[in-house]
């Protein structure tokens, strides 16, 4: 799969472990562009008190993403939750900079979720299915679940080939 260079791709999943596996595999050629909660926590562990790790990690992830977007670099951000609030700042900045904006929803089985996560995931699925994520600022949105998650082998940021 190919996205334009300079794009913002937001990966949303209720399962952090599933999301990390997907990011490691699908964005293997673009590791520098990927900003995930686990990677940021690993970078700041030991420098920040443990009780502030999640809060500082979230702040750093957003700050790094904004810096990459302003520099015109491709950026992949994995969110910690399913709410639009988490995506709003990034989408607003990417829209202002006229960067392409995409979302990938990794759909996991219902058995792995608590009631609150299940409700949030159902609301996000519905918004994606009826095309409401465009109102948030996304230009494309894709839902991957089941075998489709494993079938998507690689995502790259490259311009389309030119027709000669």
From TrEMBL:
InterPro entries: P-loop_NTPase. This is Unannotated protein.
